[in-house]
Design a protein that fits this description.
It is built from three helices and no strands. It is mainly alpha-helical. It folds into two domains: about 40 residues; about 30 residues, no CATH class. The chain is elongated and about 85 Å long. The N and C termini lie far apart (about 95 Å).
């Protein structure tokens, strides 16, 4: 079976399609982290009080502060919400 220009064109088209699809996968994984930070909260984006992403300097600082808070006695912790009184506590 002789090789014709039509076979070469089909092979090149298949290779270009495969490369394009694999390129889309790597680009999307890199862009997803940055683009998701730009989405507003009302459209399903990250809320303002969400912890920082792993791998950043702010994340390391956040984890150190969290560990420090965990090691403190409960009476000395600041910034934690106290549980709301229950209905039975209000009756007594």
């Amino acid at each position: 079976m002789p090789i014709r220009a039509r076979h070469i064109a089909a092979l090149i088209a298949a290779v270009l399609t495969g490369c394009s699809l694999s390129g889309c996968g790597t680009i999307n994984s890199n862009l997803a982290a940055g683009v998701s930070d730009a989405i507003p909260v009302w459209a399903g984006g990250m809320p303002a009080d969400a912890p920082p992403r792993p791998g950043t300097a702010k994340y390391e600082e956040y984890m150190r502060e969290r560990e420090k808070q965990r090691l403190m006695p409960a009476a000395e912790r600041s910034g934690e919400a106290k549980p709301a009184p229950s209905a039975q506590d209000a009756i007594h």
